Q: What sequence folds into this?
């Protein structure tokens, strides 16, 4: 992985406050003839298992690939609470102990920008069956549409924290479907064929506590020293607490689906 950020430092908050994607995404997959029931799927950068559980609810046999052991522990605890049986491999995405041609799909939710992408693409090509899919998803809140987000950013900047795109998201300015445009060229050069791409706008509701919890897990906050982080969170809580709850925050996810040609 590139541009290392230690999400293991915030594994408890990550498990509790990182939001799931809306269920409509699976209806959008079905409209494009993409089904997960009975399929073998590996989720790269699985974190606390958010998308692993979503895939399992769709009937997939899921393996989560995650380099932070504390996040795997958090994922297993949540899996047990929800009655899921998901296998996890403590590994980076660039080298995965799974057999060749063993997967129907490889997914990456909010993770592709942390990888050594060319190395991961070699692994993806090794692991996918013919006509297997690589599905890359990113989701973000949209600060320009949210007074709460803009107020939060102002406070964070006052404490000297640089707000910048996560990992490789800032490599180039040009965007396609809100992904860096060079990713599409990399996918094509690796031999994968773009099958579908789309975006979806949605709102999520937060209490002030939940919003602050999410802020703790963002890449530009994870490595801030604890004392300064607590002062930032206290200031955000203090300024937002008079607002009526829930706080409605606009979000957007982007999806790109590539197929391994037969």
A:
């Amino acid at each position: 992985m590139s541009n290392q950020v230690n999400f293991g430092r915030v594994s408890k908050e990550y498990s509790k406050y990182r939001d799931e994607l809306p269920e409509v995404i699976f209806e959008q997959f079905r409209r494009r003839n993409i089904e997960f029931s009975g399929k073998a799927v590996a989720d790269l950068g699985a974190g606390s298992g958010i998308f692993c559980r979503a895939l399992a609810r769709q009937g997939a046999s899921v393996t989560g690939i995650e380099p932070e052991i504390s996040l795997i522990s958090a994922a297993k605890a949540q899996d047990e609470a929800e009655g899921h049986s998901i296998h996890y491999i403590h590994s980076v995405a660039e080298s995965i102990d799974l057999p060749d041609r063993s997967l129907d799909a490889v997914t990456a939710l909010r993770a592709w920008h942390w990888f050594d992408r060319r190395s991961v693409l070699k692994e993806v090509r090794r692991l996918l069956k013919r006509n297997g899919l690589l599905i890359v998803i990113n989701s973000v809140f949209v600060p320009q549409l949210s007074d709460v987000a803009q107020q939060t950013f102002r406070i964070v900047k006052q404490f000297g924290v640089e707000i910048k795109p996560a990992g490789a998201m800032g490599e180039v300015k040009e965007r396609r479907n809100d992904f860096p445009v060079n990713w599409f060229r990399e996918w094509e050069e690796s031999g994968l064929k773009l099958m579908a791409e789309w975006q979806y706008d949605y709102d999520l509701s937060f209490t002030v506590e939940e919003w602050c919890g999410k802020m703790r897990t963002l890449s530009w906050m994870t490595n801030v020293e604890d004392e300064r982080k607590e002062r930032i969170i206290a200031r955000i809580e203090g300024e937002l607490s008079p607002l009526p709850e829930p706080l409605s925050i606009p979000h957007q996810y982007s999806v790109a689906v590539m197929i391994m040609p037969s």
User: Anything to note?
Assistant: The chain has one domain: 7-259.
